[in-house]
């Protein structure tokens, strides 16, 4: 169900919620206090991601008490990415800010982030300079992941896991979130050509509720990273990747086959009778021959996959009238009268 959008606002705050009944009222109070002296019209969009506690009942009560509160309830748990996507779709603000519901992010940082955005950036990311989390389970894996992703993606952020982030509305319109891609929003923003900044923000220890994160998500991050890197480099030209792999594997298989063929010919040359020596030298039982055949087959498969992917990409862009570029602005000559 889609909420009908009314007048535009200055700021929409999107808050994914999953079993955070104890944190919602204090969080809203902190947001209200942080924006009390700011000349901004705003809304707070709580997206209940299938909570099993009374989180949505609290959201309903907050909505009744404050018309700036918007509530969205999922029928079941879909994950944080889906919660962000739903909040972005319903947002009415020209700026859209995301923040966690666990109160580890400090709403007092919101005015400074908006001020930084108004310097001309499209996105401002929070950097938890003094992170209040367990070192082994949270800080160390996050440090390693940030360094690895920064090196592979060429997006030099120090903190990708901070949900405190503010966008211009046109940025969220370009983001197509699914799976668990909220972890790679900076990479998607960079791929679309938007400008980003990073500012230090406060981080607090959790005082209520239970953390929803664990070390197991590290493995999912690796898989999602491969997806992002593929989409960044080859989403509109998949044959460049599959063709390269197909040529490499197929070419290696052909070279191995030629090597074995040369060995058989050389055995014939060294024999008194060429055909006798050629026939007697067996390569059929050598593992190298099997490997050569498998590599050629694999190379052909990659080439076919590349052709199919090219057809799918062409269908995707042409059927939906999508472009392969992102425009910031266009300067045109005024019509002469």
Can you walk through the features of this model?
This protein has 337 residues and is of the alpha/beta class. It has two domains: 9-234, Spore Coat Polysaccharide Biosynthesis Protein SpsA, Chain A; 238-319. Helices cover 49% and strands 13% of the residues. The protein contains eleven helices and seven strands. Strands 3-2-1-4-6-5-7 form a seven-stranded mixed beta sheet, with helices on both faces. Helix 5 (135-153) packs parallel to helix 8 (217-234) and helix 9 runs antiparallel to helix 11. The longest helix is centred in the last third of the chain and has 33 residues, at 238-270.
Give me a quick take on this structure.
The protein is 49% helix and 13% strand.
Beta percentage is: 5-15%
* Largest sheet, strands/sense/barrel: 7 strands, mixed
| CATH domain class name of the largest domain | Alpha Beta
Shape descriptor:
elongated
Task: Please give the domain count.
Answer: 2
**Strand order of the biggest β-sheet:** 3-2-1-4-6-5-7
Helix-strand pattern: EHEHEHEHEHEHHEHHHH
Show unreliable segments: none
Alpha-beta content class: alpha/beta
Described by its quaternary structure, the protein is single chain
Number of strands: 7
Taking all Cα atoms into account, the compactness measure Rg is 28 Å
Number of helices: 11
């Amino acid at each position: 169900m889609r909420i009908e959008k009314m007048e535009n606002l200055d700021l929409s705050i999107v808050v994914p919620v999953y079993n955070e009944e104890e944190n919602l009222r204090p969080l809203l109070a902190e947001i209200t206090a942080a924006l009390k002296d700011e000349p901004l019209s705003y809304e707070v969009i709580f997206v209940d991601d299938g909570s099993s506690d009374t989180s949505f009942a609290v959201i309903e009560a907050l909505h009744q008490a404050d018309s700036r509160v918007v509530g969205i309830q999922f029928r079941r748990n879909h994950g944080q990415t889906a919660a962000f996507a739903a909040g972005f779709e319903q947002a009415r603000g020209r700026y859209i800010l995301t923040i966690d519901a666990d109160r580890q992010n400090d709403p007092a940082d919101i005015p400074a982030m908006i001020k930084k955005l108004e310097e001309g950036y499209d996105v401002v990311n929070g950097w938890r300079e003094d992170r209040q989390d367990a070192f082994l389970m949270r800080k160390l894996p996050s440090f390693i992941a940030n360094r690895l992703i920064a090196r592979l993606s060429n997006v030099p952020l120090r903190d990708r896991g901070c949900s405190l982030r503010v966008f211009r509305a046109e940025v969220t319109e370009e983001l197509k979130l699914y799976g668990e891609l909220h972890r790679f929003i900076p990479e998607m923003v960079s791929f679309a050509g938007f400008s980003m900044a990073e500012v230090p923000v406060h981080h607090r220890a959790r005082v209520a509720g239970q953390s929803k994160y664990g070390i197991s998500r590290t493995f999912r991050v690796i898989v999602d990273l491969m997806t992002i890197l593929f989409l960044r480099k080859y989403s509109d030209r998949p044959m460049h990747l599959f063709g390269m792999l197909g040529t490499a594997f197929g070419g290696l298989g052909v070279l191995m086959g030629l090597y074995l063929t040369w060995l058989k010919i050389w055995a014939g040359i060294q024999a008194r009778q060429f055909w006798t020596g050629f026939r007697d030298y067996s390569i059929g039982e050598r593992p190298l021959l099997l490997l050569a055949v498998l590599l050629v087959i694999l190379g052909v498969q990659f080439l076919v996959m590349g052709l199919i992917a090219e057809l799918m990409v062409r269908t995707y862009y042409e059927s939906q009238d999508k472009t392969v570029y992102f425009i910031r602005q266009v300067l045109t000559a005024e019509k002469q009268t």
